[in-house]
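seq:
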Amino acid sequence: MKMRYQLLALLFAFSISNCKLDTPDMSNTGSAGTADGYQPTTKGSTWTYHQVYTPGPTMDETMTMTGDHTTINGKTYYAATDKTDSLSGTTYFYHGNDSYSIRSTIIGFGNTVEYLYLKDNIAAGQTWTAPVTDDGKLAGFPAQIIGKVLNSDTTMTLSGNTFKNVSHSQLLLQYNITGAFETYQVIDFYVAKNVGIIEIDTDAGQPNNQKSHETLTSYKVQN
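struct:
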């Protein structure tokens, strides 16, 4: 089914090439954020990632917390600018009720997507289900995320940096196109406590075999 595989391109990764600026509620600016937990949100905290797409380009992306925040659906999201050599946009992070989410808008489709990528109050092997958009649909089809904690406390070394207290979760992006939810994309998040996301691996599977590998190369968390 041609449509089945075209949909994979919508959420290939949280690449800057797929995101555009969401307009923040500027009346809510000025929050200090927090430096603890699995996603620091303090103003000026910055992360640089190296991204490799197969097939596709290789690029570096720098993400910086702006200190701005906005309220969406009663939840507070913290804004971060993300930039490559030629593109820029804004991504929003949420932490509340032991859940961590990342939110952005897909250029050309108008869909604002949100991935609940970590729940820090459940043990390895446990799962959760979450919508991927506010109305539960993506490109007109019902869509959802099935998340699972694979490891909640491991150690990883990336670019010469050793990270402890790393949580590894795996997300299944599912669409209901034929009457039942099916998995079209697998996304692995590695998140270090008091650091943030250190690696994202995405696999859209056959027949296009689209993959991405995004790793943290440098960072600075402001207190």
